[in-house]
Amino acid sequence: MGGHIIHMKCDIGVGNTRVSQPRATRLFKTRSPEETYLLGLNLGRLLSRPAVIGLSGPLGAGKTLFARGIARGLGVEDYVKSPSFTFVHEHRGRLPMYLVDVYRLNDPSEAEDIGLCEILEEEAVVVIEWADKVSALMPQERIDVAMKWDAGDESSRDIVLTGHGYAFAGIVERVGRGDEPS
Ligand SMILES: Nc1ncnc2c1ncn2[C@@H]1O[C@H](COP(=O)(O)OP(=O)(O)O)[C@@H](O)[C@H]1O
Ligand SMILES: [Mg+2]
Questions:
Q1: Best substitution site from 35, 36, 56 to test ligand 1's pocket, by max atoms within 8 Å of Cβ?
Q2: Model confidence, pTM
Q3: Mind listing the pLDDT tens digit for each residue in 99-158?
Q4: Which of 65, 130, 149 to probe ligand 1 with, by most ligand atoms within 8 A of CB?
């Protein structure tokens, strides 16, 4: 892996261009699957406009669980499951939500086959599992969620939220741990 040649590029993708813009980063530690779900839910509740959210971290890190929380926070009532085989699931909440899983893409250029550029331009919340595989396609303004897993501890996760751009930095600053279920 590494050194991919990108044959196509979404208009809004910035690849590795360095642009200075506001950014906010926060580290959360969760100690159970429920806490990860609730963190996602609290993020989802703060979303009232289109957003691209890139989830990264190894298999089993909790990406799908976090995405399920975001969906609930957006008012999605369907059961949300990982679209590993179909790449994309669409849900309806306060805003449309697309859950995309690019794990099975062999090369970022294949993103074209699943219509990722078009999805990224929708007036929707677009949540992408394994977003690091398509980093060159990600918009400059977005939220990144990096999930780390300490091998010595099965049930804890380090979750780093980074909001890029003024609006998303503001959202990341407002995410609470909020333990109240909804
Ligand atoms: N703190 C935690 N946060 C998230 N998941 C956890 C945590 N502790 C244990 N788990 C378990 O890890 C798994 C995460 O699965 P999933 O969300 O499908 O991961 P991914 O989509 O990253 O592959 C679940 O089986 C969940 O019960
Ligand atoms: Mg998953």
A1: 36
A2: 0.90
A3: 999 998 888 788 888 899 999 999 999 999 999 999 999 999 999 999 999 888 899 999
A4: 65
Instruction: Count the domains in the chain.
Output: 1
Residue 61 exposed, middle or buried by CB count within 10 Å (0-12, 13-18, 19+): buried
The identity of residue 24, as a single letter, is A
Which amino acids bring their CB within 6 angstroms of ligand 1? 30-33, 35-36, 57, 59-65, 82, 129, 155-157
**CA–CA separation, 17 and 32 (whole Å):** 37
Q: Token pair for residue 78?
A: 């369907």
Domain that holds residue 144: 33-174
Ligand 1 centroid vs 21 CA: distance in angstroms? 32
Q: Which amino acid is at 160?
A: V
Domain membership of residue 70 (yes or no) is: yes
